[in-house]
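Internal tracking record. Fields below are filled automatically when a chain is submitted to the structure queue. Please do not edit lines marked as system-generated. If the sequence contains nonstandard residues, flag them in the REMARKS field before resubmitting.
Queue: standard
Priority: normal
Entity type: single polypeptide chain
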Amino acid sequence: MKTKLYILAIAILTNLSCKRDFLERPDENAPTLETYYTTAEQVDGATGLLYGAAWFPFMDLAFLSIGDIMGGTGITSGPGAYAPYMNFTVSETDANVLRAWQAFYKSAGVATILINTFEDKKSSVPDPAYLDKGIAESKFMRALAYFYLARIYKDVPIITDPVLLATSTDFTVPKYLQSDVLNFVIADLQAAEAGLPESNGGRVTSFAAKAMMAKVYLYMKDYENAKLKADEVITSGRYDLFPDYYRMFSTAASNGNIESIFEFKWIENGDWAAANHTQTNIGPGPLLDPVGAGGYSSVVPSINLLNSFESGDLRRNAIMEHGFYRADWTNKNYPNGYTYDTLETAPVGMRIYTATRTNSAKYVIGTGSNGEKVNGASNNMSTYILRYADVLLIYAEAVLADAGSTSDAIALQRFNMVRRRAGFPASADKTSLTKDLILHERMVEFYFEGDYWFDVQRQGFAKAKEILDRQERGEYVVNDGVRSIAHMDVKDTFISPNQLYLPIPAAEVTLNPLLAQPAVPYQ
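SYSTEM-GENERATED OUTPUT FOLLOWS
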């Protein structure tokens, strides 16, 4: 076969169309399968595409819209792309519902093409070990894409030959049951665990596969396997909690740190799709405007989140509040360092006036004056997808399972490790764990990491509604110099189990009417 599947993978990454011709036929004169993938470097170059840019349409707006706005750790003000996620009125025509769907199927499609290509190549090389590693790495990435799909849309298609589908005259594919999609995810992660090395130069490893399996098993309520896989990661001794919580999110020097199990990697090349631009979306305007990064404050910490921190919790340091100061962040507006000022007396143009008078400091690395690589709206700060703290809390929750409480010594020790890093003394250690306590810890640990909604969602509708009904999603207003809360809740808008998931994009249903039909078992 003279078709170069590598070019096909590139075509997926560069073409966002949801039509069946999203895969393009390659140039007949391009390198062929027979002449390419003859070295580990070529395989690494192909799989490297899966660590960042392929995920961009999801990471741009949907990541925080779903994970934090829907979860209640972040809010947005006024109309706009984020607004429907505040009150659970997201429709099948929502642009970010479509963009997220496309990102996941692009990533899964590239991974699947690489898996199939490397399998075809194995018979023609003397030692296929480097290809086996590429297959395992691609299976990890495909598993991640389908894990997001199953959590966000519930029942979805599984596509194992995107090239055949793209060249077919029949583009209809059924939805498969969420339980089967999750089993598909587990099978890919098991293959990744078996085929990946324990160390892999900053890429995914067998332990990353174990950790991701623990997270998937917890979502599936398979507590025994979640506990088993989390324990394998913890007892490996390969990871630890990064000592400084705020620093972990405020400098690219923390990329690949001892707590990071898997992260998306970005390049500060000015290309919006290849770089981390989270600080542009969530950062404060006066800080970032002079370097062209905007600072839109599109998503800010919710009052619900702010009220959830215990006194002395150092994780609150990763939120900009009045008086927040960074001497090393300088620009023409702040020649003596950056001060976050929410007072009415602040100089014109310098006053921060977001809905909650706060901004997240996570993924805000500054103007570049401190040596960080900031290129306009882009920087090279990695985005954490799975951290060691998550594995510790997964273990604790897996031990608790569906019980009302647990005083298991190992679960408590691992749970309290996360709290100790947050600045709490041994005297403040918890001596018994409940589901609400663990969920609270996860909220204040993982806010603005695109994850908390999935913790709420996996509780089922009744418990999710109980959690969301307690949240304050409003904002501060000032009348005659007095600050008060313009209250907002979702009691009257989060009313159906269907709202635990987002609708499949209307454009996709038009192209594939089977998506409007009930899900079927995956064979």
